[in-house]
Amino acid sequence: MLLIEHRYDGPDETTKTLTLSFDQRTKSRLRTQLDSGEAVGLFLPRGTILRGGQRLLADDGGVVEVCSAIESLLEARCDNLLDLTRAAYHLGNRHVAVQVGSDTRGGWLRIAADHVLQEMLEGLGCAVEAIDAPFEPEAGAYAGGHHHHHADSPERRGPRIHEYRHNA
């Protein structure tokens, strides 16, 4: 069995791919298969969340690219930002993993398919559609996200918690 214990940021080309659901990408210990069918064991630091496009280093020297599996999701859209924000609040209050995004039709929230949450979102005025897509939810306020921009960079996304100082 191929063993993977480290992320990889080097220049070597990807030689293998590993497609995982979001739930699988949150497990630091996992026995699974590469897309080629080869058995693999993940032994990553506790708390690791893998994201689509990240690369890992296998014990045979191969570079493995992580791919986000297509999953059954619900996409919620609202007529205005206030309603979309309210929906995001209620999902967060229930500790639901949420992917936030936008396209030419406006902003959306994506969650794993769940009929109870679908009813709640519809009750909040959202138009909810079942879709199949990769799932890349927000990492959470204290996780730091998966963006690694300098703190002063205008491209920086993610939480800004505890970055403000009180000036006396």
UniProtKB/TrEMBL annotation:
It is found in: Cytoplasm. GO terms for molecular function: nickel cation binding; unfolded protein binding. Residues 139-168 are annotated as: Disordered. Keywords: Chaperone, Cytoplasm, Nickel. InterPro entries: UreE, UreE_C_dom, UreE_N, UreE_N_sf. Gene3D superfamilies: Urease metallochaperone UreE, N-terminal domain (2.60.260.20), UreE, C-terminal domain (3.30.70.790). Belongs to the UreE family. Involved in urease metallocenter assembly. Binds nickel. Probably functions as a nickel donor during metallocenter assembly. This is Urease accessory protein UreE. It comes from Nitrogeniibacter mangrovi. The lineage of its organism: Bacteria, Pseudomonadati, Pseudomonadota, Betaproteobacteria, Rhodocyclales. The gene is ureE.
